[in-house]
Design brief:
Length: 149
């Protein structure tokens, strides 16, 4: 086991609240998207939700396997997730795409900031974070491609 699992677990906790929050805002967008691209955006958001939830589970289980409990209660996610504010109510399809791209990019930035540190502390956790980043960056690319000219 690791000498100081709390250090690694702190990074996992940050990733956890971001991923849980990402899944929540993607579902909010999924329920409220409107416009000519409704169906593809609606379906794309489902894929983001599915991945975010699966990644959150992997992150939480990694922390617990290291012997450190996690906290993904709604109040914790609301106060600690590093996501931009997501509006309520109906949203145009292009607005949802842009907002989700911003949310995913913010999660990527926070997770990337820990990759080097994780490599020094725990290669297994670093590998998990890199794999999640790969998936997040794919979702970001797909969203950004919808705004390409």
């Amino acid at each position: 086991m690791l000498e100081r699992p709390e250090r690694v677990a702190a990074t996992l906790q940050e990733a956890l609240v971001d991923l849980v929050g990402l899944g929540m805002v993607a579902k909010q967008g999924h329920w409220h998207v409107r416009g000519p691209q409704f169906l593809p955006v609606h379906q794309q958001l489902d894929a983001i939700v599915e991945d975010a939830r699966a990644w959150a589970d992997l992150v939480a289980e990694r922390s617990v396997a290291l012997g450190v409990p996690v906290d993904a209660r709604p109040s914790t996610v609301a106060t600690e997730a590093g996501l931009p504010e997501f509006p309520t109510g109906w949203l145009a399809d292009d607005k949802v795409v842009a907002l989700m791209a911003d949310c995913i990019e913010s999660v990527i930035v926070r997770m990337r900031s820990h990759v080097d540190e994780l490599g020094e502390a725990d290669l297994v956790t670093q590998d998990l974070v890199i794999e999640i980043l790969r998936g997040l960056e794919k979702h970001l690319w797909l969203l950004q491609a919808q705004h390409a000219v």
